[in-house]
Design brief:
The chain has helices spanning 7-10, 12-26, 32-46, 49-61, 66-71, 83-96, 104-138. The protein has seven helices and no strands. The longest helix is centred in the last third of the chain and has 35 residues, at 104-138. Helix 3 runs antiparallel to helix 4 (49-61), helix 3 packs parallel to helix 6 and helix 6 packs across helix 7. The chain has a single domain, classed as AhpD-like (Up-down Bundle), CATH 1.20.1290. Helix content is 70%, strand content 0%. By secondary structure, the protein is mainly α.
Length: 145
């Protein structure tokens, strides 16, 4: 991989805003497990190795099982995820692959299972990780040693 620009150094004010955005998420009522499932699933879709490395480690530290992490990309095919988690994952996928929008069925199911406030926080979490993924992928952030 070629060396690419370092946005943190070249656009420090914008990077600070991203960190503040992340702090919103840290202070939200989302469970650690939900935050990490969102971050990992979006990062799988976007192909962000840096974020996948970080958030699978964070998920394990938050008590996530290896089995669920291994099967996250095939969550529809297992019974390992709760109805709420399935709603969150479906929403994460549709928001990340935004070309077709978010379907009424996915939105309404998430709203029914999560409520307005939690749904708003889930949606913001999806937006935040997608922004981080775009930074990681476009600048080829190297994995930590």
């Amino acid at each position: 991989m070629s060396d690419r620009i370092n946005l943190r150094k070249l656009a420090p004010d914008a990077y600070k805003i991203m960190y503040n955005f992340e702090q919103y998420l840290a202070q939200s009522s989302l469970t650690d497990r939900h935050k990490e499932l969102i971050k990992i699933r979006a990062s799988q879709i976007n192909g962000c190795a840096y974020c996948l490395d970080m958030h699978t480690k964070d998920a394990r530290n938050a008590g996530e099982s290896e089995q669920r992490l291994y099967l996250l990309s095939a969550w529809r095919e297992t019974s390992l995820f709760t109805n709420e988690e399935k709603a969150i994952l479906a929403l994460t996928e549709e928001m990340t692959k935004i070309q077709n929008g978010v379907s009424e069925a996915t939105y309404n199911r998430a709203l029914q299972l999560l409520g307005k406030e939690y749904l708003a926080e889930v949606m913001m979490a999806v937006i935040i990780i997608n922004a981080w993924n775009r930074i990681g992928v476009s600048t080829s952030l190297p994995l930590p040693d």
